[in-house]
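Please decode residue identities from the backbone states below.
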């Protein structure tokens, strides 16, 4: 199982700080560094800069919402960033959430699985072949994407529901999850996405799982901190459904916290469940994050 670092929200950080964080992850030996698209810097553009500055580490979005960007525009941006990264860019995309799409952006969240299916019907041909002719119910594109270089751009979907997992395994390159526990990954996510890939005659897809992680002698205190820091994810329906499936009352219950041996066993459980990439979201104070980083380096 590959191990990477989740860079976290960019809202309070400069671009130089993000470049340095990715450089530190590379220097520490991690194979990947990921940024979310929330309400800060543009994650894809930031990773294009990182890719030029920091060699030798995969760079991914976890994730970019699809609704605000037409897939033809996203394809061009992804190819540009992949070129800047020397082919090390991983495009993670997702639906976001109904409250964000409808209340903040004023767009329809009707039939999200249909939206993603039509989105991929445009995005993937443009990334892979450079041309598309598609007319769906909500998205249309009849356009080329002409570039001098066409690096491979793996596309991962933030897939939790069955139809989304079918898309992630059947036509995309896999999934990246957040706040999804080991039992749910092993009993639900991995079997469903692998079955979709097998039905389509494709190789087993990438399953990247991101969870909060902290090495500490005070696991109860760490869970209290996780409950506060990640409270919103216990209220969003898609994450709430996965927490309920896990039997977790909230995000604190799926955070990987405790001493080195405890967290090491938890990460091994993820590998045994079929996770191909663990993306650690380090949290806590500076001392705790330093201890966490030092431990995760021992797993590489």
């Amino acid at each position: 199982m590959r191990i990477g670092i989740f860079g976290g929200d960019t809202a309070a950080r400069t671009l130089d700080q993000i470049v340095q964080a990715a450089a530190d992850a590379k220097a520490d030996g991690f194979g990947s560094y990921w940024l979310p698209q929330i309400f800060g810097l543009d994650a894809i553009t930031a990773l294009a800069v990182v890719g030029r500055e920091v060699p030798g580490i995969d760079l991914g979005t976890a994730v970019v919402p699809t609704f605000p960007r037409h897939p033809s525009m996203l394809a061009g941006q992804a190819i540009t960033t992949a070129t800047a990264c020397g082919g090390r860019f991983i495009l993670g995309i997702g639906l976001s959430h109904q409250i964000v799409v409808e209340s903040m952006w004023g767009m329809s969240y009707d039939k999200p699985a249909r939206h993603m299916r039509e989105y991929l019907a445009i995005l993937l041909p443009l990334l892979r072949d450079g041309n598309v002719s598609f007319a769906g119910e909500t998205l249309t594109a009849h356009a080329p994407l002409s570039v001098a270089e066409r690096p491979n751009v793996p596309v991962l979907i933030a897939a939790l529901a069955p139809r989304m997992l079918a898309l992630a395994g059947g036509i995309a390159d896999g999934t990246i999850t957040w706040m999804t526990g080991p039992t749910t990954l092993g009993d639900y996510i991995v079997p469903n996405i692998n079955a979709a890939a097998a039905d389509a005659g494709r190789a087993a897809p990438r399953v990247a799982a991101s969870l909060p992680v902290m090495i500490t002698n005070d696991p109860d205190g760490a869970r209290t901190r996780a409950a506060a820091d990640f409270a919103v994810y216990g209220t969003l329906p898609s994450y709430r459904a996965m927490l309920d499936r896990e039997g977790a009352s909230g995000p604190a219950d799926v955070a990987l916290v405790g001493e080195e041996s405890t967290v090491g066993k938890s990460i091994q459980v993820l590998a045994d469940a079929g996770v191909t990439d663990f993306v650690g979201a380090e949290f806590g104070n500076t001392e705790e994050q330093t201890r966490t980083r030092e431990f995760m380096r021992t797993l590489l």
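Observation: The longest strand covers residues 206-215.
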